[in-house]
């Protein structure tokens, strides 16, 4: 009996002909879109017909993402996880910070760039992401709500920092890198890779440049920020609320959960994404379980957390997922884009660090916590970093959720404003010339 495979695609409408077209993006090959739909089963034979189904996304975008044969997927996933585990073991041996995630990230990225067939399908990554959300929800305690005034000020400053970082980076890419208007803007917004690539491509941007820019930014922030904080930050890294610290210490004894606690946490993990989808929450596989787990811990239904062994495996999977973003990318083709992505990442980190330092003295929240909360990294990676460093993970997660919501709601208006500003600036340059 022949094996089967599934083709993932999204639809793109050609601006001139009005016809639907398909386009392969090597820079994001193997990365499955959140708004995808699956076509009917395709036979293993290359001569068989393939029928693709539009996803119905409101952006009308379609890209063939992956056509991996079904019998190859388990072996490639096992290879990827094995490489990530080996990298995690190596980083643990040398005493590197956040060894499980960073070791897996660097090992998998190196394997991807060297041509090895690494693959980590979204169902695998998202399954472990739900467990991370449940663990992070344990950091939400009553003490967090007693600091509502300081958090409100910090969240307002976060919006200002995000706007400044985006505008500065977009101006740099537009003026010096000579990117197109949409490409410069969406490559500079510190949002999710899939969302920014989809919307930016629909509005005329270069999808591969946007995707690679966000990949380089994410990998740079996730890999270097923990090293920087461990080596240079002198503030005490023990600002996690006392109750959360006690919970994490009790969770060090793996598999010490009662049956009631285990069932409750599994229920949060299973129902969280469903509730997140109903509420249209950003990153619903992480935020949904985080929300339910936080409610359960704040109300006193449970004081348990998932065993540390599960969190360690989740960090390996998250690191491998980030490293797999380099699959299909050639080093020679990414030099120019990667160089400018590193420049914009440095600019964004400088802006975020400045705002974090200013707000630390104003709000009383520790600078290391705000540095992670304001940094342009992924919500999963930054909250895991805060847990590894003993910081207030609930505060960090709250800031990143607010940033995602603000970017999602304000992106259309911000892009329109960016276009008006660039038209005015280009007109000034032409008139002076």
The CATH class of the largest domain, by name, is Mainly Alpha
Strand content: under 5%
Determine the structural class based on helices, strands and strand pairing.
mainly alpha
Helicity range: 55-70%
Please list the strands of the largest sheet in the order they lie side by side: 1-6
Q: Kindly report the average pLDDT value.
A: 75
CATH-scheme architecture of the largest domain = Up-down Bundle
Roughly how many Å apart are the termini?
71 Å
**Poorly predicted residue ranges:** 1-68, 234-255
Q: Could you give a short account of the major beta sheet? A: 2 strands, antiparallel
- The DSSP helix count reads 16
How many domains would you count in the coordinates?
2
Order of helices and strands: EEEEEEHHHHHHHHHHHHHHHH
Rg over CA atoms: 22 Å
How does this structure look, described?
With 433 residues, this protein is mostly helical. It has 2 domains: 1-71, no CATH class; 72-421, Na+/H+ antiporter like fold, CATH 1.20.1530. The protein contains 16 helices and 6 strands. It has helices spanning 73-93, 99-113, 122-137, 142-145, 148-175, 181-188, 193-202, 207-232, 242-250, 259-279, 284-298, 308-323, 331-363, 367-374, 379-388, 393-432; strands at 4-5, 8-9, 12-13, 20-21, 37-38, 42-43. A two-stranded antiparallel ribbon has the order 1-6. A hairpin with a 6-residue loop joins β3 and β4. The longest helix is centred in the last third of the chain and has 40 residues, at 393-432.
